[in-house]
Specification:
By secondary structure, the chain is an alpha+beta fold. The chain contains 4 helices and 9 strands. Strands 1, 2, 3, 4, 5, 8 and 9 form a 7-stranded mixed sheet that branches. It has a two-stranded antiparallel ribbon with strand order 6-7. Strand 3, helix 2 and strand 4 form a beta-alpha-beta unit. The N and C termini lie close together (about 5 Å).
Length: about 230
């Protein structure tokens, strides 16, 4: 009887510890590293930039739309920097007439700032490039971009790595988190695909913690029944 009681107490203590650990994980801010890459944005109907839900190679903007690209270090869609210029189709394509079988797409390319530049790379002197792409009606966002900002560079997985020759190397590298008070990332980490999740603990961590608590609760219940 005493042994069973001790077992139940130990299990209860373990479950309580797991609960405290899970609570701490959920409350702690995410410390995930960021990624250096070109983000893709869409602007339609005079609305502000919206993070694109698909890549430029598959997106097919309509006549009168705007697309934007921003090179920056980001942890996900929640903190990704938007292009510095608004999606102003009238201002970029206002003097261009629509042709039969074609469409006009306003393109904004923001090369970011020095803090976003890869080691050894220099941000173009003109940090924002705009142009009105005149492309066929079925053209993709990538084709509209190519019409105004060549050369483009892609990796073997068809990820957009460079626009107008910038940057000359690399593609979606992971970047170590910044040290307190630093103006730029402390050191690069191995290359990886850009992250697209928001901050906070991942679903896997929370689900795993919940499973630990569930098992701990079941063990306590069984121990009490034996007692």
């Amino acid at each position: 009887m005493r042994t069973t009681g001790r077992t139940g107490a130990r299990v209860a203590g373990a479950a309580a510890g797991a609960l405290l650990t899970l609570t701490a994980v959920a409350a702690a801010p995410a410390q995930a590293a960021g990624y250096r890459y070109w983000s893709f944005w869409e602007g339609t109907g005079g609305k502000p930039w919206a993070y694109a839900t698909q890549g430029p190679a598959t997106a097919r903007p309509a006549d009168g739309d705007a697309i934007g690209f921003r090179f920056a270090i980001s942890q996900g869609t929640s903190d990704t920097s938007r292009p510095a210029l608004a999606p102003d189709f009238a201002g970029i394509c206002g003097g261009v007439e629509k042709k039969d079988g074609g469409k006009r797409i306003a393109v904004v390319v923001d090369f970011g700032g020095p803090a976003d530049a890869p080691p050894g790379e220099t941000v173009p002197a003109k940090t924002v490039k705009v142009g009105c792409a005149e492309v066929p009606e079925e053209a993709t966002g990538a084709e509209a971009l190519a019409a105004v900002a060549k050369p483009l560079r892609y990796d073997s997985a068809a990820m957009l790595c460079g626009i107008a020759g910038y940057p000359a190397r690399g593609c979606g590298e992971q970047v170590a988190e910044q040290a307190p008070g630093s103006a730029a990332p402390t050191a690069p980490a191995p290359a990886a695909a850009p992250a697209h999740g928001g901050g906070g603990p991942s679903f896997g961590v929370l689900a795993g913690g919940a499973a630990v608590l569930a098992l701990g609760g079941a063990a306590i219940w069984k121990a009490r029944r034996r007692g």
